């Protein structure tokens, strides 16, 4: 700088008038547009330290937690056993808990569920009341103590948490308990996560294995306008009072009901009351199909429908789908039976197919091998089938 000043003085005859220039802060901000190719330094802006000139990130605690798009991939559902195993342990009756024992045996020998519970790290919360965690621990013990007896103490103690209206020591309904356990396990899959939209929550491990999608349709018989409502389902309950077989009961389930007379339907397209038909069909089949044959009802004061309803070890669900397509084959792996005359008394037990393909009768602590013919002769209450591998 001093050399430049000397040069200026020499060119001006050795004299120069020096004057201090005072910069006054601008009264108006700089113009927002800056010509291309020219770099400006705003004189009024305070200079930033080098560390402040780095890209600033918002505080970590202010960053919203990302919601998962999918909790459990459908392609990760393993429909078949990964290895050949023998039958699991028998279960000790904790006081009229045969309904609970039979359901736990069916779940323990459900291949897609057991494969996840056996191979994954601890699931759910370790708080002593999480149904997903206690079921995982039960399945691991039951399949490791083959030929032995396991006491399902945790499930017995947590009975009221699983189903609020249940009471230990009292005979309860096995189907109601099954649905409650699945729902509680699904909630365990969501524990610790932020509130999720339904389309994400319905990708939990339990939903991927047991849930399907049902379509309820109302169709106008004059203009063919269709109104469709879709709902997830864990099981299908079938009226068997007039059905001699499972297939006939399913056909009756999807048969359209006529809406006419005082039950006519207001068509959204025509905006008037019209004749219509209402039906239920499966939009998306589940990986594990749970079917309840309704043998109890309030209309007959709890008297059981004890008739024989024929079923087979293989079932094709394609005739009952909303869209007809290739066969939807299912293989039977568990049959839950109620022995007795009403909902207020009786005994529950089940038949399950072991990983080695052999059928066994699971009656509390008693475990015995049976033939397939014996299984098909049962007056089933709940049927569980797995989708055939593609």
TrEMBL record:
PROSITE patterns, A to Z: USP_1 (PS00972), USP_2 (PS00973), USP_3 (PS50235)
MF term (GO), any: cysteine-type deubiquitinase activity
CC per GO annotation: cytosol; nucleus
Broad EC category: hydrolase
Enzyme Commission number(s): 3.4.19.12
PANTHER family: UBIQUITIN CARBOXYL-TERMINAL HYDROLASE, UBIQUITIN CARBOXYL-TERMINAL HYDROLASE 36
Function: Recognizes and hydrolyzes the peptide bond at the C-terminal Gly of ubiquitin. Involved in the processing of poly-ubiquitin precursors as well as that of ubiquitinated proteins.
Name the record gives this protein: Ubiquitin carboxyl-terminal hydrolase
């Amino acid at each position: 700088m001093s050399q430049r000043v000397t040069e200026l003085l020499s060119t001006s005859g050795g004299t120069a008038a020096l004057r201090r220039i005072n910069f006054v802060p601008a009264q108006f901000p700089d113009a927002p547009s800056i010509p291309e190719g020219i770099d400006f330094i705003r004189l009024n802006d305070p200079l930033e330290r080098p560390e402040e000139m780095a890209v600033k990130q918002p505080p970590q605690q202010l960053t919203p937690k990302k919601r998962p798009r999918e909790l459990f991939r459908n392609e990760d559902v393993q429909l078949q056993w990964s290895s050949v195993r023998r039958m699991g342990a028998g279960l000790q009756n904790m006081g009229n808990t045969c309904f609970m024992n039979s359901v736990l045996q069916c779940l323990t020998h459900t291949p897609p569920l057991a494969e996840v519970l056996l191979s994954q790290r601890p699931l759910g919360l370790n708080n002593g009341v999480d149904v997903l965690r206690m079921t995982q621990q039960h399945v691991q013990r039951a399949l490791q103590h083959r030929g032995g007896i396991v006491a399902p103490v945790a499930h017995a103690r947590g009975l009221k948490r699983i189903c609020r209206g249940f009471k230990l020591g009292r005979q309860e309904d096995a189907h109601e308990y099954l649905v409650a356990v699945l729902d509680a396990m699904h909630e365990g899959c969501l524990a610790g996560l932020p509130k999720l939209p339904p389309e994400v929550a319905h990708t939990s491990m339990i939903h991927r294995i047991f849930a399907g999608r049902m379509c309820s349709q109302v169709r106008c018989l004059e203009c063919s306008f269709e109104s469709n409502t879709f709902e997830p389902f864990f099981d299908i309950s079938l009226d068997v009072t007039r059905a001699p077989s499972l297939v006939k009961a399913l056909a009756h389930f999807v048969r359209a009901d006529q809406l006419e007379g005082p039950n006519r339907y207001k068509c959204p397209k025509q905006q008037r009351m019209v004749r219509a038909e209402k039906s239920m069909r499966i939009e998306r089949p589940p990986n594990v199909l749970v079917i309840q044959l309704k043998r109890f009802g309030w209309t007959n004061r709890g008297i059981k429908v004890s008739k024989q309803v024929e079923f087979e070890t293989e079932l094709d669900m394609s005739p009952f789908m909303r869209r007809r397509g290739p066969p939807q084959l299912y293989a039977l792996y568990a049959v839950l039976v109620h022995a007795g005359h009403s909902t207020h008394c009786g005994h529950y037990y089940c038949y399950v197919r072991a990983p080695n393909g052999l059928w066994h009768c699971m009656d509390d602590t008693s475990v015995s091998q049976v033939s397939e013919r014996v299984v098909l002769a049962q007056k089933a209450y709940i049927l569980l089938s797995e989708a055939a591998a593609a």
